Amino acid sequence: MSSPPTADPRAEMLQGARSLAEAPPPGEARGITSDLSVDEALLLHSAGWEPVDLVCGVAVVSVPVGVWNWGQGTISAATDAHNTAVESAARQLRGECTKVHGHGVVGVRVQVEVRPHHIDVELVGTAVQPVAGTDGGGTPFVSDLSARDFILLKGAGWMPVGLAFGACFVYAPRRSAGVAMKQKTQNVELTNFTEAMYTARESAMERMQRSALDAGGQGVVQVRVTEGPMSFARHAVGFTAWGTAVRLVADSHQFLRPELVLPLDDAVVTFEAQSLRGK
Amino acid sequence: MTQPQDLPKDAAHRLEELEHGLFTSDLSVNEFLLVKEAGFHPLGFVMGSSIYHIGLQTRKWGESQELTKLTEAMYTARELAMNRMEEEAQALGADGVVGVRLDVNYYEWGSDSAEFIAFGTAVKAEDGTSHLNALGKPFTSDLSGQDFWTLMQTGHVPQGLVMGTCVYHIAHRKFTQALGSVGQNVELPNFTQALYEARELAMTRMQDEAGLLKASGIVGVRLEEKSHQWGSHTIEFLALGTAVTKTTGTVTLPKPITIISLDN
Q: Residue B184 and residue B195: Cα distance in Å, rounded?
């Protein structure tokens, strides 16, 4: 049996959280915390950027009881809760980033959990800034691109501007027992489900596009989607989509002129992007 | 803008927004830059889906046979999804769709219904040249951004994602047959033959599709074998690949630099 802890772990934790929440005294930098790998940190430095701190944003928004039950059309209460949660988590993340004087957050891990009574959103990433340390001004960007992708994108004249998010939940109308029976042996499209899926998908994608435009983006890269019926309410389908909104900041797209390389290692299946990193 | 025929109206609305300059894409940054490098610009993340009820077909216990009704279902549902994706791409004025993924998802709605879904990124040539395929439609391809760029370097252009499928029921062995081969090293010719035939059918159908596109070859062919929800003796053979044609005469490829990487 282990010996009892000497101090109250809860008090210790709270104190740690408090000291992290305070801005470090001027002229006295706090050590750098980041979840970047060594090569990512080196790569950032080689492009004139450095990690500052690990930042996070968390939001839990409640979903009213009963909204998943039987109904028609869009489940707006759940859709709204999702959007509120995402927005407030991203706002927190940007707030923390500003506090440590970061210019943006890269490598954001996005974790969204939809539960019957609440929606949790958790965003964790590394705040970065140019080494020169010029004051960023403006709102910091948030991006789920890795530090490597960030450098690659910057080299091509683009910058991430924010995380674009969209979600929608929709009821799928049931087939009547008679129809289900008749279709038992047939090859048929289940139009009720297809349509519900389409409605959810289209409004989620549209919301994602809108949030990209609002952030000043010209495009969204690395869009990821989750879709399907909710595990706790199978006649409700959900669709979420997110990606990083990007904007061309250079005068024109900078071509990277990749070279063909042939790795001689055993069983190399990955594409070698070495040459894309710039000379 | 051509009005899509088969799309729900929400889809048409979203596509209108995409025409105002914003692009969306599920390409990674690498792929995005390589597609740009190949002279294309992404237009939008396009998709098509169909939730489909697959019918029933009785199989004979001891007889190997193609289950045409199931084959037809797998074909029709995939075609529905692919066509809807192509329509979205056409509505955007795209030249093609890269990085196409075809998935089949089963949900709790019942074991014989499945969602067939096709995703991809619609792209357009930046120099304004048309890359529509022999059928006058945007090309589709399941090649990644990396493969797409490499293919274009060799003077080939993708024509379309081609597929062939065959749902086959493989006969069970009779008890006496099974008994006869106990303890022996023997080939089981009925199994071998059934698997061969099913595979051949799927491959031939894929090649026929490539023929319609007047393609000179198919690259990146994958052969998938899945039992889905039909039990162990009923298997779907799916052959998928990208049909390509050669555009220019001779291409001199730069000699690849050989490297030995030091990381693991």
A: 21
Interacting residues of B252 by C-beta distance below 8 A, sequence separation 6+: none
Domain ranges of chain A: 36-273
Token pair for residue A150?
């960030």
Question: Structural domain boundaries of chain B?
Answer: 15-246
Kindly state whether B108 is in contact with chain A, defined as any CB-CB distance less than 8 angstroms: yes
Which residue of B7, B31, B53, B152 is the best one to mutate when testing the A interface, meaning the one whose CB has the most A CBs within 10 A?
Answer: B53
pTM for the predicted model, two decimal places: 0.82
Between A and B, how many residue pairs show a Cβ–Cβ distance under 8 A? 168
Q: Which of B55, B35, B37 is nearest to B97 (CA)?
A: B35
Interface mutation target, options A37, A214, A221, A247, chain B, most CBs of B under 10 Å: A221
Query: What's the complex ipTM?
Result: 0.80
Q: One digit per residue, pLDDT tens: chain A, 279 residues? A: 455 556 688 888 888 778 767 766 665 566 777 888 888 888 888 888 889 889 999 999 998 887 887 777 888 888 999 999 999 999 999 999 988 888 999 999 999 999 888 999 999 999 998 887 665 567 889 999 999 899 999 999 999 999 999 999 998 877 777 777 777 778 888 888 888 888 899 889 989 998 999 998 999 999 999 988 888 887 888 999 999 999 999 888 888 888 888 877 765 555 444 444 443
Residue B54 forms contact with A (CB below 8 Å)? yes
Fold of B15-246: Translation Initiation Factor IF3 (3.30.110)
Instruction: Name the token pair of A103.
Output: 């210019």
What's the rounded Cα separation, in Å, for the pair A160 and B51? 36
Q: Identify the architecture of domain A36-273 in CATH.
A: 2-Layer Sandwich (3.30)
Query: Are A246 and A158 in contact, with CB atoms under 8 Å apart?
Result: yes
Pairwise CB contact (< 8 Å): A156 & B23: no
- Please tell me which of the candidates A152, A202, A261 has its beta carbon nearest to residue B10: A202
Determine the 3-state secondary structure of A46 from DSSP.
Answer: helix
